[in-house]
Amino acid sequence: MAADTSSGPRSTHVLADLWGIEPAVLRDAGRIESLLREAADAARARVLAAHFHHFGGEGGVTGVLLLAESHLSIHTWPEVGLAAVDAFMCGEARAEVAVEWLRASLGGELRTHTVVRRGG
Amino acid sequence: MAADTSSGPRSTHVLADLWGIEPAVLRDAGRIESLLREAADAARARVLAAHFHHFGGEGGVTGVLLLAESHLSIHTWPEVGLAAVDAFMCGEARAEVAVEWLRASLGGELRTHTVVRRGG
Prior knowledge:
The structure is a homodimer of 120-residue chains.
Chain A: E1 11-19, H1 23-26, H2 29-42, E2 47-54, E3 61-67, E4 70-77, E5 82-90, H3 95-106, E6 109-118
Antiparallel strand pairs in A: 1-5, 1-6, 2-3, 3-4, 4-5
Helix pairs in contact in A: 2-3
């Protein structure tokens, strides 16, 4: 039987490219994880699981927090000072707050910003 | 010293809401993980880590594959037959292929589809 598709949970998905960040920060998986946990907390999201990976040497970090409210991810390219962030949150959690927290704490410049309403 | 921000790695981020999917499938974390792994393989992406969580009972699944090329995530709402997917891939990996694989294998109808070029 097909499910009712007439309505769904409203969620917000924010994609942000942050530029001009110190390369050393973008290679530090521990620091990046701490900042994402702080951002999730600021957004009132609850962390279910975390995984962060440093590609080694001069490489970047890729990581995600799986949330009760969906997810918060980051992928970094230290060679160009870029952090690509996405925050997908439903319920009372505030995806925009998480992204703004990361922009401020990473010291980056928000150059591309996309907000998509999901599950409408 | 600020990093050079004049250019960056080109990536594609695809967001897709898939509707009309069997609720039983959307509660089965093992099956959802298998389908995402197949989708990543079809897109020529390499899995670094996986985490899938079932909220229990009639609840949905939230999960992510962390990829060498970024990530592939899913969040499901069985009560309305919805799977919200996002595929963020750089390099040779094909985010669109992963999303189309999931649409076909989940038997869903693609109702909202957003493609964002990242890190341009």
